[in-house]
Amino acid sequence: MKIFKVINNNIVITLDQNNQEIILMGRGLGFKQRPGNNIDENLIEKRFSLSSSDNEESSVSQLLSNISLEDIRVATQILNYAKDIFNTKVSDSKVIALSDHIHSVLERYNSGVELKNNLLWEIKRFYPKEFTVGKEALDIIQQQFGIKLPEDEAGFITMHIVEAQMNQTIDDLDGLTQFIQKVIQILKYACHQEIDEHSAYYYRFVTHLRYLAQRIFSNQISIEKTDSSMLEIIKLQYPDAYQAAEKVLNFIQNEYNCRLASDELIYLTIHIEKLIRHTNTD
């Protein structure tokens, strides 16, 4: 195995049999090395394989040249914790993105700069489970680097966790969060009541909205018609929830210039019915 590119003292890049770049990390792995030298495989701690699209879309080498091995270890520990919680896979590019974020956080902290997270309240509401991972991340960072970060930072890390789960960018997730916020407001207006935002029904509804938004933003919407008899049954059985679901559906279609299948109206009605019933019985 030979070095293709030296990033810094701890990070080098090699090529696999398909000429795809493989990032290798380990203390001293790139120290006094140059392209073409043999790699001491005993020093390798981590391997990352990035697709060609990852390399085209971001300056991976530039990111790697700035972050430290400790940044990567902490990011890996955080994402491994998230993988255990959510039983999901995380691509190598997400590890590097979070490592770069942690590096930036440490730089800001050392410079006395503190960023306000304007979406913190929404993040807590819409991603409660992911936010617990964000708070755990602050503990991991404190243990490793000896610094105590504010809750705002847990919110920023939460968005990286959500991004890793849904394979979207942070910019997409800002739009996704606003999508959920708008739909919840429309729902409250349509139902003329507050919603219990701490219930399992609310969490399931928000989860449904997250994946609906993901399909809308990626233009992966099915417009196949559902059996009209099922829609009529739902309409008769849950008239109030159905009316609220219609308002939500119309808002989404008009606001995001999309057309949704009638089965989406069924799903929304069922979710809203459970939300209303749970809120009214508590």
UniProtKB/TrEMBL annotation:
<dbReference type="InterPro" id="IPR036634">
    <property type="entry name" value="PRD_sf"/>
</dbReference>
<dbReference type="InterPro" id="IPR050661">
    <property type="entry name" value="BglG_antiterminators"/>
</dbReference>
<keyword id="KW-0677">Repeat</keyword>
<dbReference type="InterPro" id="IPR011608">
    <property type="entry name" value="PRD"/>
</dbReference>
<dbReference type="GO" id="GO:0006355">
    <property type="term" value="P:regulation of DNA-templated transcription"/>
</dbReference>
<dbReference type="Pfam" id="PF03123">
    <property type="entry name" value="CAT_RBD"/>
</dbReference>
<feature type="domain" description="PRD">
    <location>
        <begin position="172"/>
        <end position="282"/>
    </location>
</feature>
<dbReference type="InterPro" id="IPR036650">
    <property type="entry name" value="CAT_RNA-bd_dom_sf"/>
</dbReference>
<dbReference type="GO" id="GO:0003723">
    <property type="term" value="F:RNA binding"/>
</dbReference>
<protein>
    <submittedName>
        <fullName>Transcription antiterminator LicT</fullName>
    </submittedName>
</protein>
<dbReference type="InterPro" id="IPR004341">
    <property type="entry name" value="CAT_RNA-bd_dom"/>
</dbReference>
<feature type="domain" description="PRD">
    <location>
        <begin position="66"/>
        <end position="171"/>
    </location>
</feature>
<dbReference type="Pfam" id="PF00874">
    <property type="entry name" value="PRD"/>
</dbReference>
